Amino acid sequence: MAKGLNQVQLLGNLGQDPELRFTQGGAAVLRLSIATSESYKDKETNKWEEHTEWHSAVVWGKRAEGLAKIVSKGTRLHISGALRTSSWEKDGVKHYRTEIKVRDVILCDGKRQGSERSAAPTPPAARPPQQDDGSLDDDDIPF
């Protein structure tokens, strides 16, 4: 039995272009800033308000390199992964960072960097008409 569950899922938009870097060992690291928004009704003003939350996420390895080529600011993503907290000390002050270590990514808007979508959808390929030769009767079906 598992002792705990560390799972995060977000559906949001990139707030800035992703930042691709490489470790000293050559591993690719892609940093993402993802915005999620929620609407709520303010009880005092009776108006709908929107709250945006910003999330830091990191993608590693070949997936990071590939993703960096196809996403940009505004791209809608669904990510899933686990929360990770790291700490370091700088000038005698301890700093902390909590981010999502991404396991899976789904592009939700079909947006590709450097390409434009056509204004009109492409029609599906035409199928040749099916001809019924009458060789199968409904009584022949065993259910």
UniProtKB/TrEMBL annotation:
Pfam families: SSB (PF00436). Residues 134-143 have a biased composition (Acidic residues). InterPro entries: NA-bd_OB-fold (IPR012340), Primosome_PriB/ssb (IPR000424), ssDNA-bd (IPR011344). One of its GO terms (biological process) is DNA replication. Residues 111-143 are annotated as: Disordered. GO terms for cellular component: nucleoid. PROSITE patterns: SSB. CDD domains: SSB_OBF. Keywords: DNA-binding. One of its GO terms (molecular function) is single-stranded DNA binding. PANTHER family: SINGLE-STRANDED DNA-BINDING PROTEIN, SINGLE-STRANDED DNA-BINDING PROTEIN, MITOCHONDRIAL. This is Single-stranded DNA-binding protein. It comes from marine sediment metagenome. The lineage of its organism: unclassified sequences, metagenomes, ecological metagenomes.
